[in-house]
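Teaching assistant here, posting this on the class forum so everyone can see the example we discussed in section. The complex has two components, and the goal was to see what a joint structure prediction looks like when all of them are supplied at once.
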Amino acid sequence: MKALAGYVAGLLFGLGLAISGMTDPARVLGFLDLAGAWDPTLMFVLGGAVATTFVGYRLAWARGKPLFEASFQLPTRRDLDARLLGGAALFGIGWGLSGYCPGPAVASIAGLSWPLAAMLAAMAAGWYLARKIA
Amino acid sequence: MDLMASLQGLVGGVLIGLSAVWLMAAMGRIAGISGILSSLVWARPKGDSAWRLTFLFGLVSGPLLVMALGGGLGNLSGDAVDVTGAVIGAPAGGVALMLLAGLLVGVGTGLGSGCTSGHGVCGLARLSPRSLVATLTFLAAAIVTVYVVRHVIGGGA
């Protein structure tokens, strides 16, 4: 059941990315390019996603526990540190260079090209490095 | 502004939100793509890898389904610069640029404990101060990067 639930979650996410145009780096870069012909689409994607999640999370939490696990696993830290800020800044630079954050990069595998394969391999290597630094 | 693209953005955003809500309701987990996939590739926790793998299959099959049903459901060209209307768009650069970008995205989301989904969608919805700061930081860094690449180095395309 957990495997099926995971598939449903991934499918909804992938459908959302594709329908909103986020699997096209040009559209993402168009949003980030404030000085160019600005493309607001990503703002609507993030707005729709955050509003839906804000309401839905509270309905899910009100049930007391998840369907297939004993408890909710939520991050508890509230402090800010250099790793959070530095990591977010490095991620932002990579996002701005490519127009890919992890979701759209992976969801685009069906349109695989050498640059995308390089992106995915380097991203996995970066995750490994981050785990070693941690 | 392209009204249809904005509307599809909103619909796609709601679907991404439903994915996050479902993962919380079913598994009690944050729908952070970098966390789910980094853990699948490098940690493989017992009993917790199967759903991460099927999540990955679902993520990849979403755009395939949209293309199978007809491109009209997916990305639109509209009046946006460089947008061709392909559901899966071409990478914005060659292998060397993508290697650098991928490494930065991997290390950055690893150290910063999240990406656009974990911090940007789930974290903001939880009203997490760490996620708000992280989201503002990576948005600002990305906007500055695009400005430098397109308008300083690129000469204002």
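For the discussion questions: Chain B touches chain A through 125 residues (CB under 8 Å). Residues 3-153 of chain B form one domain. Think about how each of these relates to the inputs above.
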